[in-house]
Design goal:
Blueprint: E1 7-10, E2 30-33, E3 40-42, E4 47-57, E5 63-69, H1 71-77, E6 79-81, E7 86-88, E8 95-102, E9 108-110, E10 115-123
Antiparallel strand pairs: 1-4, 2-10, 3-9, 4-8, 5-7, 5-10, 6-8
Bound molecules: deoxyuridine-5'-triphosphate.
Deoxyuridine-5'-triphosphate (DUT) binds near residues 87, 92 and 96.
């Protein structure tokens, strides 16, 4: 499958050596680094916006980017994303930031250039509303929230 090309600006020279990359041929995400000059300690419950040193412009190609936690950091240290998922619009050109949230019970210190989140590029479509009075019938209808299998 051809790889879409996405314009990126390096806002910090350290990124020249450490541009986010796919770790293996099957990796879904690229790790993003904390582009900070000094260690940053997150107390339990604290969230901070951390720069990645990148600005990207996805452009008009039917894609967006999603920022997700790294599994190890989230599971072992409780460091996830303050917004749970970061959604990067295709027309956004500002600095790419990661909201780092320590949801754990111990302080965690983020080191400069530590990998703090991962970014996945995903297809997106914009839909249009079609206002109706009634929907075509389906087997599920309005059932939800555990309705299947209920007796
Ligand atoms: O984790 C994130 C989430 C968002 N953004 C940037 C890219 C995104 O395109 C922009 C706006 O994000 P969003 O639409 O989620 O923010 P909002 O709070 O709804 O603000 P806005 O009114 O600017 O859309 O902020 C990041 O850098 N990191």
């Amino acid at each position: 499958m051809s790889q879409p090309r996405i314009a990126v600006r390096l806002l910090d020279d350290r990124l020249r050596e450490q541009l986010p990359a796919y770790a293996s041929p099957g990796s879904a995400g690229m790790d993003l680094r904390a582009c900070i000059d000094a260690p940053l300690t997150l107390q339990p419950g604290q969230a901070e916006l951390i720069p990645t040193g990148l600005a990207m412009h996805i452009g008009d190609c039917g894609l967006c980017a999603m920022l997700l936690p790294r599994s190890g950091l989230g599971h072992k240290h409780g460091v996830v994303l303050g917004n749970l998922v970061g959604l990067i619009d295709s027309d956004y050109q500002g600095p790419l930031m990661v909201s780092c949230w320590n949801r754990g019970s111990a302080a965690y210190t983020v080191q400069p250039m530590e990998r703090i989140a991962q970014m996945v590029i995903v297809p997106v479509v914009q839909a249009q509303w079609e206002v109706v009075e009634h929907f075509d019938a389906t087997e599920r209808g309005a059932g939800g929230f555990g309705s299947t299998g209920a007796h």
